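Friendly challenge for the regulars: who can give me the structure tokens for this chain first? No prize, just bragging rights.
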Amino acid sequence: MRLVVARCSVDYDGRLAAHLPEAVRLIMIKADGCVAIHADGGAYKPLNWMNAPNRLSEEDGVWTVVNPSGEKLTITIHELISDTDHDLGHDPGLDKDGVEAHLQELLAASPEVLGDGFRLVRREYPTDIGPVDLLCRDADGNAIAVEIKRRGEIAGVEQLTRYLQFLNQDPTLAPVQGMLAAQVVRPQARALGADRGIECVEIDYDLLRGIEPDQAKLF
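First reply, four minutes later:
Bragging rights claimed.
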């Protein structure tokens, strides 16, 4: 990870236009190519960012980040204060809670729940940035990367997008489709998934465990 502290101004040109006036900020460049610009405040959320995959070029104090959709982030460095690189090594990822881990186990045993003709290739299929929960093949033999969450939110779509970037570099798998499976999928996640070609499906955890609804229970 590269951490740069600089007095900079930032311009974004894409689906809309945005400008950050000159100020001292932290610029974070991650190993997967993500670029995020932070102020000293505002909790965890960056002021502006560009998710991988993208291309970063640096020329005469002007950094340009461009993604395949043509969106462009221009960072003008007025004063470079600090520029350091840190090797963080391999990150095993966040340990799933009991429900997510059990969902993964159940879906691995019954992948057809996710789609007709689905079959499991491997659980925890490795990528350079961590394992995707399930790698499956559909009835036509197409590769499907499945990320499993209790709640399907934007962060899950973003995570799966990064996995797909690496999986699609493997000619034995490409093209790989993405699927976010969760007990509940938020509307924002569903909208972002649709924009990125990622299918979002809701899973009935109780039904998957073989627990039938109590028809006699009124309340």
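The mean pLDDT is 89. The longest strand covers residues 72-85. Your move, everyone else.
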